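User: Quick sanity check before I run a bigger batch. Here is a single chain. Can you write out its predicted 3D structure?
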Amino acid sequence: MSKLNAGAFEFVPGRAFVLPQKSQTPPSKPPLERPLQTEAPAPAPTITLNIGGSNTPVSPAPAPAPALQSRSAPALTPQSKPTLPPSVSASTTPLQSSSPTPPTNKVFSTERAKTDTTSIAKEVQAIADQEVLKDLFGDVKEHLNIVFIGHVDAGKSTLGGNLLYISGGVDKRTMEKYEKEAKEAGRETWYLSWALDSTPQERSKGKTVEVGRAYFETSFRRYTILDAPGHKTYVPSMISGAAQADVAILVISARKGEFETGFERGGQTREHVMLVKTAGVSKIVIVINKMDDPTVNWDKGRYTEIKDKLTPFVKSAGYNPKTDVTFIPVSGYTGQNLKDRVAKSICSWNDGPSFLEHMDNMPMVDRKINAPLMMPVSEKYKDMGAIIVGKIESGHIRKGDSLTLMPNKSAVEVAAIYNEMEEEVPSAICGDNVRVRLRGVEDEDISPGFVLTSPKSPVRAVRQFEAQLAILEHKNIICAGYSAVMHVHTLSEEVTLPALLHYFDKATGRKSKKPPQFAKKGQKVVALIETTLPICVERFIDYPQLGRFTLRDEGRTIAIGKITKLHDDRVDEVTEGMAHVSVAA
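Assistant: Done. Predicted structure follows.
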């Protein structure tokens, strides 16, 4: 039978015509009777999906509508509660009880996910590093290198000597001996500084010449003191000390006239702050010394005056006054507010922590423990073999390690490692100031500025590189062919600028296409820098400590800079390759 016409004849081959039969329709079902609705339907459960973001609170469900009442259904009483299915009631109960919260951004973005995964990876890595350190070295106290900087006669060596005495780094008998000798020499008040100023020249003149080293411990941390000279003649020594430091202690004299002399043009306070920032020191503690002086007598007005003058300057040098800078009033000679807080009877207005209290609780600097070994040499001497002194900038070192001394590419072996107390230790990690005895090299073949490094990924040794320079001050203009002394990590080397490549527009900050003819004070330029011998440096973005430098000329800091590009020196490699070539006849 055709589906189009129900009354048509059906024709099937081999069969006779058959009259169409009436299709039997199934009996119709009685209509459904729905119960009268006496209450509002329950809200659907809310499901939130949050990918790559923070935990977002669930928005509250809307309040149910008032119940509908019909004539036949009884009215709902306050005691009678609507019955809901268990699945619905379980999901809606917490939603109704949750407090209203502001809406949050639930948009998924790759940038956000990237940031989150990076932070998680860093967190996991840090925990792993701590566990590895604990397994290798046990519970070792954190180590900080602190450098004392400031104008000459600010009291740096006296402050450092008193810290050693208070913390037990120098015993009472030794200090009494220094006091007796100083009295005989007519330098009675200088005896504390003699703990750090060890040479006769330094003791007779009362001026630090070389960077003094000392070590002390508290119950929380280990410290290495680097006492930098304050006189402008010895600034190169001060730079080598600052290159090994994690935290700078800027010592300011509160005595009338002394602060002004050090802070005005020609004083070393400004230059020292600029140099430690360039050397990579991220935290600075400004210690206002000589508060017990009769001209000051713990006066709050003098303290506030010095603080207000220094804050804008350290901010302009690149430090954040809220997070990177701390002001502490002390008396280095009497020891007040160094270990114990100053008594309220002497200084009623100071509520801050003492110097050592602040140092023990300040955030620890980041250490690159898993990176390849980099240890710039600051000193070297001969003692049953060649011994080098320096701070491990990255990685770790163990006795028996086979390493490379760059830029000479000398293969050396670690024969012994000594810590700050001259005790032999099996290993040392990033941040430690150590003495290392080397086997396989003579001390005549080592110079300050060489870098002890891993043979698998050695530090780069180049003669030419590009760098961004910020010209701080110079009498004349700087053009191609200019020469100056470059200070990078523990190295000081004479360099020339064969070409100026670009300058930065002050308004837009963009690089120029044409090279500038000259550079003057206040400008930022990109220059090509050349040395006579290969030096060990890295790009700033890879290793900041080996990629930032200062240029000095005529006893003044001319410019600060960071290395952006290294030019490979292939001449040495070709020469070495040709040296082994033999021609058969």
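Residues 110-137 form the longest helix (28 residues).

User: Great, the batch can go ahead then.
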